[in-house]
Amino acid sequence: MRELVRGAWCVTAMLTFAAPLAAQDEQIGIARGATPAAVTIEDLDGKPVDLSLHVGKKPVLIEFWATWCPLCEALFPRIEAAARKYGDKIDVVVIAVAVNESKRSIARHLERQPMPWATVYWDTDGRATRAFQAPSTSYVVGLDATGRVVYTGLGDRQDIEAAIKATVMGGNGR
Predict the structure, then answer these.
(1) How far is residue 26's CA from residue 28's CA, in Å, rounded to a whole number?
(2) Given this model, what pLDDT does residue 118 score?
(3) Nearest to 155 by CA among 65, 71, 73, 47
């Protein structure tokens, strides 16, 4: 069953990227201008965390991510570089989807490839995935300082620097 679910996520991602890059200009997931519902997920120790701790305080860049996602892996260097460049101006939150993953597998991955520039959470039962209407992994959402969605994107070709600039400036990101 786990392989079937993982396969469904991979097929969704592959179908998404079969389309030309114009798909980045289309609405993906939660609507721009929307304010996502407050959700409680978990940290990697299993403690409940309300995402509102990040939302509405300062700009936030959120990536829906998995250790097995090749698009997430390809996007990683750009998110890391932008997070380091804009670190004091933005929170970067990585939400690990609970598809063919465990908190333990994520912790092991983070030992090999740390993300000290991001806060990593576990979306145990898909609450954040549903609230942000995440269609797949490698889905990125930018929220401005008021908690309003200003950017959504999917895939490894996203311009993360532009996404963060839109998020920090409260612009009309993709």
Answers:
(1) 6
(2) 93
(3) 71
Enumerate the β-bridge partners of residue 41.
49
Confirm if 78 and 162 have CB atoms less than 8 A apart: no
Each domain of the chain, given as residue ranges in start order, spans: 2-169
Dihedrals phi, psi of 170, to nearest 5 degrees: 70, 25
121 closest CA partner among 49, 61, 67, 55 = 49
For the chain, the residue count is 174
pLDDT digits (tens, 9 = 90+) for 35-86: 999 899 999 999 999 998 988 889 999 999 999 999 999 999 999 999 999 9
Distance between first and last Cα of the chain: 35
| CATH C-level class of 2-169 | alpha beta
State the amino acid at position 131 in one-letter form. Answer: A
Task: Note whether 137 and 155 are within 8 A (CB).
Answer: no
Largest separation between any pair of C-alpha atoms in the chain: 43
Per-residue pLDDT at 14 exceeds 60: no
pTM over 0.85: no
